[in-house]
Amino acid sequence: MGHSTEKTEELLRKAPRLKVPDELLNELKRDIRLPRDGEPGQAPFGSGSSLKRWLPAFSFSVLLLACLVAIAVQSSLLSELRRENQALLAESQDIAQLRQENQEYHRLRAQSEQLEQLRKDNVELQKLRSEVAQLREQTQQLTILRAENQRLLAEKKANESRTASGTEEDPFGEIGEAKKKAQSTACVNNLKQIGLGARMWANDHKDVLPPDFLAMRNELNTPKILVCPGDHAKVRTANWAEFGPANLSYEFLAPGISARESPNTVMTRCPLHGHVGLLDGSVHQSSPNFKIIQKDGKWVMERASYE
Amino acid sequence: MSDQAEQLYDRAKAGDPAAASGLITLYYERIFAYFRRLSGNDEDAQDLTQKTFLKVWSSLRSYQKRSSLCTWIHGVAHHVYVDWRRSRDSSQWQSDDWWQTCMADGPNPFEDVAEKELAHRLYSLVEQLEEGNKQTVHLHYYQGLSLKDTAEVLGVATSTVKYRLREALNFLRSQTAEPKFRT
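YS: structure for the whole thing
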């Protein structure tokens, strides 16, 4: 039972007329107050009605205009930012190139510094080498001087003992000289025995020489042979248990090296007489015809050159 | 009628009371009916009608003839009503069933009882409309003003009047679509 819009409108338009009170017409006519000539007309309602009517449209126009202005400003800013962005992109490419060059520069600089450091190190090394050579030379001289010193000390002691005891018995010194020779011979004999014992020890230990005298005590008959007969500062002992530095005159110059080294490698030496025992077991008495030098950490005997 | 009204206006503007009486005779019933439907009683409607014509006389010279005289007088009446509503507490005011209580003697405009019932239901529903829509319906349908004149009286755009009427009609149709009206 629905009805159309037209029907609704028709019924609304058919709104019945209303009964008007009888006295209203007379009252209205009685209240007529027409304006006199020259009297200005009064607006029936607020003068701002026109403004009020157009205010929404006016507001919308202002808003639209403001939006357009804002869009224009934004567009302008956007285009400006785009231009700046492009300029910055172009500059950033230059920056990448500069960065590469900077890295190359740093690399070269590092290499240069490294080279400079190597040069300094080389100079320092050369200096140290010369110092080492000098020190080696001084060490050799020191060794010779020590041997000489020992020899002189021994001679001095011998002279003193001779002066103290034998002067009266041997006023011409013949006995003392013979004794010295006998002691030197005994010293040579001792060095031979020591050399033999060391080689025996090496045979049992893969051709490696003993680290010290004590290690080859089984190969030596007695520790007595470790004291030079001319060395009165040391005391002979027959007991290995009592053996110590005070019971040893000789130097063992080839501890722990291979027995197959060069035959002229010095193994033992008597600091008092200057006799040396070589690796091959031979013993050479002190002589100006040869000298011992240190080569590659080992002491070797070489024939002295005559210049 | 428009020419007659314009002539009466010119004469009334020139100070002719007879012409002013003629203008009252022409419009007072419509203006009273407008107020009677909105105010809910005869006394307020009479009072508002008198105020309206007093304003018409005092502002007679300000009429610029941009719209018809009828529209202009309705505009004055509308503002008088708005001022009256504003001065009153909304709880003090209520409309009545004007379509039943103060019918003028005359022919029955409805074809049958069903149409009459539907019409009364519609009039009742119009009073429940939102104020802007209600004013638009009163002026356009009850007072017989055109869309343009209604917009002129209410001080809104014609499109606004159309929108309000569409809303009002949708509401009325939705409320009267049931087999039995929602009572």
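YS: worth flagging: The interface with chain B takes residues 1-3, 5, 8-9, 11-21, 24-25, 27-29, 31-37, 39-46, 49, 52-53, 57 of chain A (CB under 8 Å).
IM: good catch. Also Residues 121-162+173-303 of chain A form one domain.
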